[in-house]
Amino acid sequence: MRSWTCLLTAAALLLIALPAQSVDLVSDREPVATIVVPDEALPVESFAADELAHHVEVSSGAELPIVAEAEAPAEGHLVLIGATLAAAEAGLSADDLPVNGYLIRADGARMFVLGDDSDGQPGWVQHNNRTRVGTLFGVYHLLDHELGARWLWPGPLGEVVPERDSIAFEEIDLTGKPAFIHARWRDGGGTVAGADGWADPANRSRWISEQGRWLRRHRFALGVNMDMAHAFTTWWEKYGENYPEYFNLLPDGTRRSDPTYHGGADRLIAMNVSEPAFHRQIVENWLETRTEDDPFIDASENDTPGKCTCERCLSWDVPDPDLEVPWDERLQHAREAFEAGERDWVKHLGSLSDRYARFFLAVQAEARKHDPDAVVTGYAYSNYRFPPLETTLNDHIYIGIVPGGWMFGDPGAVGEMLQQWDGWAATGARMMLRPNYMLDGHNMPVYAADRIGEHVRHCAHHGMIATDFDSLTGQYATQGPNLYMLARLTARPDLRVEQVLAEFYAAFEPSEDAVRAYFAHWDEICDAV
Ligand SMILES: [Zn+2]
Question: Which of 139, 268, 281, 401 lies 20 to 30 Å from 417, alpha-carbon distance?
Fold first, then answer.
């Protein structure tokens, strides 16, 4: 792909006239520096060195050698990647960096790039890849901010690297980290990464490998474990007999799984979320099972609406202004509907968001008796998806928001999504965005890049610490701007939506206008359908 020049003015640290104290990588298209990796390099350190060498070559044609530290030349310009002995001797360590964080320092003729790394595969399917890749993100910081590299889609055709005769860095001394502690765009599983439909398994292999690399280039990484799941699916089996008070009191006075809901399956039972003994049991289990890699208390309700009609749970609710029956008659209406076998009897209870917010607080209060830094996670979902009306949370409660609505052909959806987001963010909780809207569109030419950008960017600037997008369908030809928007804002939420689109279209120069017109056409069609 053609390189472009209009976005390069910001690359202030790259100088054509080289002062004495710069680290020179390339001079007049000739390699000047050597890339050095530790003698026992982690896969991520080697991957990072390869990525740096690759982009320098695409930009300038110069091939920088990559050598192990024991083979490093005694003199000359060096780029030291990862936890080298030289970095340790220079007093540089990744120990105090945040997860997936990095530091970059130019020191005389040496430049160090190192980060918070772990052993493990950095590439391939990213869905559950928990390798820490700080050094790699340090290299991507340089490629993005200094070399102006852009990655429109996976593979060499999607790489846009401005051409240069010389590449040098001076006076660089920074630390950085990814914008989010957890960024996932689901790229695993049969739907998006299955073996069906490939003419040759080698093509699929190459595809997955390039797509995993593309996600890394956009700083997708699971820095901490934000996996939330319906947390009490096995509790009835385990505790139903001895601790019935952990479970919902249905309108007929029984504690059991709701027979009107999917046949009363045990795993779908709702919990008695105001019950102190239940809170204590959650915390007791967490103390036994928590690990450094999985430190949070997951208090996500089972895959069911909240249903407990005990007096205390009802007293935790806040009158729902949208409820169609009078607030003080809601239990009676719920009971009649339940007894008539109506599956949606629970609608008469109204929004239970304050009840669930208080539940998260109660679990947190119990956990704080053991650990003042305890973090509780939970979904905003089902009949507790709307923001609570009165309850205030705090920054040690992480809420996973699943927006309703779709992006394509539904221009009103974003407003509702933002209301839901802002309401929960206003409680003081920290927030994870877990949308389903990137699943939409199949392989059709559909366009909603500006709306996707508006939504993601708003969340990023209003409390979002983590993402989990379902899913990366990979239709880069027909949906390129949508996919680039989400990827680019994951790496750089500081960019405006128009800037991201400008980057995308500028890469097609001299056909920029034609490509813009092509996607504008589908934008119009999508809104009309
Ligand atoms: Zn209850």
Answer: 268
What confidence score (pLDDT) does residue 403 get?
86
Cα(229) to ligand 1 centroid in Å equals 21
Q: Quick check: bond before 510 cis, omega within 30?
A: yes
Distance in Å, CA 314 to ligand 1 centroid: 7
For the record, the structure tokens of 120 come out as 């493990």
Instruction: Give distance in angstroms: CA of 246 to centre of ligand 1.
Output: 8
Q: How far is the CA of 316 from the centre of ligand 1 (A)?
A: 9
Which helix (DSSP H) or strand (DSSP E) does residue 47 occupy? helix 43-60
Tokens matching residue 243: 């601790």
How would DSSP label each residue in 441-509? TTTS----HHHHHHHHHHHHTTTEEEEEES-----HHHHHHHHHHHHHHHH-TTS-HHHHHHHHHHTTT
**46-99 pLDDT per residue, tens:** 999 999 999 999 999 999 999 999 999 999 999 999 999 999 999 999 999 999
Order of strands across the sheet that contains 33-37: 66-68, 33-37, 77-81, 110-115, 102-107, 173-176
Query: Parallel, antiparallel, or unpaired: how do β-strands 33-37 and 77-81 relate?
Result: parallel
Q: How far apart are CA 110 and CA 14, in angstroms?
A: 15
Ligand 1 centroid from CA 435, angstroms: 30
How much distance in Å is there from the Cα of 177 to the middle of ligand 1?
Answer: 43
Number of other residues whose CB lies within 10 A of the CB of residue 494? 11
Q: How far is the CA of 312 from the centre of ligand 1 (A)?
A: 6
The CA 313 to ligand 1 mean position distance, Å, reads 4
CB 430 within 8 Å of CB 398 = yes
Give the distance (Å) from ligand 1 centre to CA of residue 42: 51
How much distance in Å is there from the Cα of 256 to the middle of ligand 1? 12
Ligand 1 centroid to 322 CA: how many Å? Answer: 22
Instruction: Return all residues near 426 (Cβ < 8 A) that are at least 6 apart.
Output: 387
The pTM for the full model equals: 0.90
| Contact by Cβ (8 Å): 176, 101 | yes
CB-based contact 85:38 (threshold 8 Å):
yes
Rounded CA-CA distance 408/176 in Å is 35
pLDDT in tens, 300-352: 999 999 999 999 999 999 999 999 999 999 999 999 999 999 999 999 999 99
Joined together, the tokens standing for residue 48 give 């990072």
Residue 356 CA to ligand 1 centre (angstroms) = 11
243 Cα to the center of ligand 1, angstroms: 13
